[in-house]
Design brief:
Elements lengths: L3 E4 L1 H17 L3 H18 L6 E3 L2 E5 L5 E8 L2 E9 L4 H8 L1
Parallel strand pairs: 1-5
Antiparallel strand pairs: 2-3, 3-4, 4-5
Amino acid sequence: MDVELIIAPEAQQDVEQACNWYEDHKIGLGEEFLTCVDACIHSICRSPKLYPKIFEKYRRALIRRFPYAIFYEYNVKTIYIYSIFHTAQDPTKWRNRLS
C-alpha cells in the first residue's frame, strides 16, 4: 500500500531527544532506538489500520524494546505522525498535541 507519510516537527524532535538521551547513557543505544522507531513506522505504513484507535480518531503503535509509543492518524492514503512519546509521561501531553 502506497501512503504518504508526514511526520510532525514535534514528533521528529521527540525522536531526536530520546535518541540523544539513550546515546548519552550507552553508546550505540541511540542507534538501536532509531532502528526500532524506523521498524515501527514501516509497520504502520504497511498496515495503518492494524493498531487500535485510542483517542478519538488517533491510533497508537508501541515501539518494540523501548517504552515509547507513536501516535498517528490515518486518512485514506496519508499517515500523520503527531508524536513519539515515552509511555510513562503524563497522557495529557500527547492528547494536547493531538487536539
